[in-house]
Amino acid sequence: MLSEYLPVVIQLLIAIGFAAFVLIVTHILGPKRYDPIKHDTYECGVDYYGNAQRKFAIKFYIISVLFVLFDVEVIFLYPWAINLVDLGWQGFWGMFVFLGILTFAILFAWKKGALEWE
Amino acid sequence: MIKIAFIILSLISIFSALMVISRKNPVASVLWLVFHFFGIAGLYVLLGAHFLAAVQIIVYAGAIMVLFLFVVMMLNLNLVNNEKRGKIIGKSIGAVVSGLVLVLFTYSIRTTKWNELFFNQVTDQEWGTAVKLGSLLFSNWLVPFQIVGILLFAAVIGVVALMKRKITRKVENGIVITQEEDVA
């Protein structure tokens, strides 16, 4: 069972190795030009002011919390989907009720204006 | 082989956890925490909890870290760093809490009978796969599963309550008008 994870480990090593390889090679081969404008946060576009730690609208946070909650919902679809035939109608109705509750939840959030964006 | 994997993953986890608590920049801490979650996911795999390992990476390293970043951004840490006041109180509260956690962990590690537990009893290496978990979840644990759904619903209500304001939207003469009003 654990030996099945060997491809995962190999893929991880390739990913890390490739990222390190590209970074090192560009560091060695790339031309070095230092310029205050080049090292700006946005090279082109609006000039920044202040720093990143400032007040911003709660809407961003609400959207991300809702994303996490429905992410958890979708996670439960995996073990259900690969067992769909074996579980039969019991599994079907179990998931139906579960998704029904969460559909009601998203409708509630929608109705309350949590998804509005202006 | 498993022992080597365990040692490597433990070292990754411990090292990245130390990096999390020692970084001055909280955003760097959060990024090290992502690394830590990957190490923990590997340890779950060694325990046979394959599905949990995947969830650890998808939900924790992916989604929940975004929330952590939001919280870090919202804390307005520039002000906190400059403030000398309350540092001693904060440090002593931290020392007491982490001391108690250390006592709890040491106690539970010392009193757990590791040899009788778990490792020797698990003969089925596939107990934590998504297939096994799914078949149990929708037969024996169907009611707790529905309660999870209700729990998520409750969390959605909590999030909406955070907003406190109701935004209504209507279109008049082709122009979108939004109105904000307080919700109790």
Summarize the structure.
The complex is a heterodimer of chains A (about 120) and B (about 180). Helices cover about 65% and strands about 0% of the residues of chain A. Chain A has a single domain, classed as Up-down Bundle (Methane Monooxygenase Hydroxylase, Chain G, domain 1).
Give the name of the CATH superfamily of the largest domain in chain B. Answer: NADH-ubiquinone/plastoquinone oxidoreductase chain 6, subunit NuoJ
Taken from the alpha-carbon principal axes, the silhouette of chain A is: flat
Major sheet characteristics of chain B:
2 strands, antiparallel
Class of secondary structure makeup of chain B: mainly alpha
Fraction in beta strands of chain A: under 5%
End-to-end CA span of chain B:
59 Å
DSSP summary, beta strand count of chain A: 0
Order of helices and strands of chain B: HHHHHHHEE
Question: How many E strands of chain B?
Answer: 2
In CATH, what is the homologous superfamily of chain A? NADH:ubiquinone/plastoquinone oxidoreductase, chain 3
Oligomer: heterodimer
The low-confidence runs of chain B, each spanning 5 or more residues with pLDDT under 50, are: none
Number of helices of chain B: 7
How many DSSP helices of chain A?
4
How do the strands of the widest beta sheet of chain B line up side by side?
A: 1-2
CATH class categorisation of chain A: Mainly Alpha
Chains forming the largest contact? A-B, 50 and 56 residues
Domain count of chain B, please report it. Answer: 2
